Amino acid sequence: MIVLSVFPGLAYVLLSWLHGIHLKAVIWYFAVLAVSFYGYLIHRQYRTQQLSSAQLKVWYKNLSLFYYVFCLLWLVIFLLFISEDEYDLHYIAIFTEIGASVVASVLLVPDKRLFKPTVIVLMLPLAVYFFFMGGWVGYVLSVFACIFTWVLIYAAESSHKLLIQTNFQANHDFLTGLKNRYYFIGYLQTLMVTLQRSQKCSYLLLIDLDHFKTINDSLGHDVGDHLLQEVSSRIDKQKDEGGLLARLGGDEFVVVGREYENKSECRIKAVAKAKNILTSLKESYNVDLHSLYISASIGVSLIDGKNNDANRLIKEADIAMYEAKAKGRDGIIVFDDAMQKRVEHNLEIEQLLHFALDNDELTLNYQPQLDSGGNIVGAETLARWDNNKLGSVSPDKFIPIAEQTGSIIKIGYFIMETAFRTLSEWEKQGIDVQQFSINVSMRQFFYYNFIDDVFTLCNKYLSEETRKKVVFEVTESIIAEDVDKVVRIMERIKSLGIRFSMDDFGTGYSSLSYMKRLPIDEIKIDRSFVSELNEESTDQVMVRSILYMAKHFNLKVVAEGVETQEQFDILRNDNCDLYQGYHFSRPLVFDDFVAFYKNNR
Ligand code: C2E
Ligand code: CA
Ligand code: CA
């Protein structure tokens, strides 16, 4: 608009000079320049500054003022030219007015309050001008001017409607009519600037439904969709006045609260709000003749002046939400400093783990497994990571991270290769174990090349006979996957002679039905049961029934975490097959294992 005025404006000055009215025209032109400069400043302010919501309102007022004044300036040149006797100037004036109206009706389309008055203010004087011109031509032109005004406004309104509609679609979620992720990010960014200025605080709740996928899969997407609509309307009723509810996608919603004076108040309000939402979500739903029940996990993060990255804030709420899921779902967790530290620590682990293999920082330990006579008959390989900066990191810590980041594929391959090499080396040194267990993580197990890797490494390091000693330990979480697929993979690997063991038995999904379906050979009673074992504990009943069941299914049983003679005696009494634990030996490095074995014999 400025460009459309500043350069053509010069032509008007020239014309005025030719007709001896240049003084007025020059003053007019300076006004155009001044207003243009003002317009440029407004434009720049938006481009270079982050504005809070209050500032945005003021900014928009200034912008509207700029448009009104700017259009009025073109009315001024019209009035100036028609006040002259020269008809040439009148023609220019008429065309100018029409041109300015068209420009206004096109450029100011986003706001009715802008384009309607401007077009009318620009066109009405023209109609009046024609009217006073007199004669039939004058009256006809006057009517034409009115019709033209109407056409311009009608066209602008249609475009306006379309624009609003497109804008609505870009900012809203189709299914629930709530604001979408795109809108939410922008909203959050502005909110953070506002809070930075006001030094106030607000909160963000990330709500994720528990097991929504199951409903979707079992009852169909229609039911899932209706449920989501009902869920969104329930949350909507709970949210703060002046707050925001948006759907991020799938079964994930966010709620942003209103502004609070201080952080502790905000935190209390956030948790209370989350509780209310959770309670209302847990009331039963009637969807298409199904009576449904669903819970949610909610992550809370607090937004204050210090935080200015929307994505980071969402990430924090996400971490808190996953923590709530990990703690058994149906709960609320607030992201706090401790969590922040943990996240940073995990990030450091993640980065350093990346180089662990190249830097030779990973090694294996071997923990002996004994029979009831106290003879070493097996071993379990356990990974160890020693890092310059972090010291020795427990596999309980780095294995899950490796799983998340995918580096478990390379690490798992390394572990398998090292373990196979150890096994063949032991054979050369006369160490004869019946079984040799290697932990296989879930992601590694489902890796597309896993079977090939196992075949390749077997062929490289192990004879046909030696392979039969290898046992892969998998955890019960494997059951959560497609069982047929699990069985297919296991069968392929079993064709090599390798056996499978169910690790940490009793802690997860343990169910008899999958025990029948999976071709496993052994179970390992989780050490949490073993550690509780004494004469009068109930876990003795638990362990006894596991043993009984295992015998029924023809499975070998290893008890892990045996720490005392008493535990050993109880297990032995119940005919457990193998024993592993600190009572016999801690996990040992290669040489120590060899020495321990020879000593045992
Ligand atoms: P897990 O497979 O259940 O391994 C047994 C864990 O119990 C080992 O911890 C072992 O050191 C410990 N342990 C053995 N006997 C006793 C005892 O008498 N008392 C107590 N309190 N603990 C005992 P570690 O080595 O820290 O490994 C932790 C977990 O990390 C393992 O649990 C396994 O899930 C995972 N892990 C370790 N190495 C590997 C590996 O090479 N690959 C994969 N995928 N996971 C591994
Ligand atoms: Ca294990
Ligand atoms: Ca275990």
**Strand fraction:** 5-15%
Please report the total strand number as a whole number.
Answer: 16
Major β-sheet annotation:
9 strands, mixed
Alpha-carbon Rg, integer: 38 Å
Structural class: alpha/beta
CATH topology of the largest domain: TIM Barrel
Judging from the principal axes of the Cα atoms, what is the shape?
elongated
Bound molecules: ligand C2E, calcium ion
Q: What is the CATH architecture descriptor of the largest domain?
A: Alpha-Beta Barrel
Helix content: 55-70%
Summarize the structure.
This protein is 61% helix and 15% strand.
Question: Can you walk through the features of this model?
Answer:
With 601 residues, the protein is an alpha/beta fold. The protein folds into three domains: 3-171, no CATH class; 181-335, 2-Layer Sandwich (Alpha-Beta Plaits); 352-600, Alpha-Beta Barrel (TIM Barrel). The protein has helices at 2-18, 22-48, 53-82, 87-107, 112-133, 135-171, 181-198, 212-219, 221-238, 263-282, 310-326, 337-356, 395-405, 408-428, 442-446, 450-461, 464-467, 483-494, 512-517, 527-531, 539-552, 565-573, 590-600; strands spanning 202-209, 244-249, 252-256, 285-287, 290-292, 296-303, 332-334, 362-370, 376-387, 391-393, 435-439, 470-474, 499-505, 522-525, 556-560, 578-580. Helix 5 (112-133) packs antiparallel against helix 6 and helix 14 (408-428) runs parallel beside helix 16 (450-461). The longest helix is centred in the first third of the chain and has 37 residues, at 135-171. It starts with a helix and ends with a helix. The structure holds ligand C2E and calcium ion (CA) (2 copies). One calcium ion binds at residues 380, 439, 473, 503.
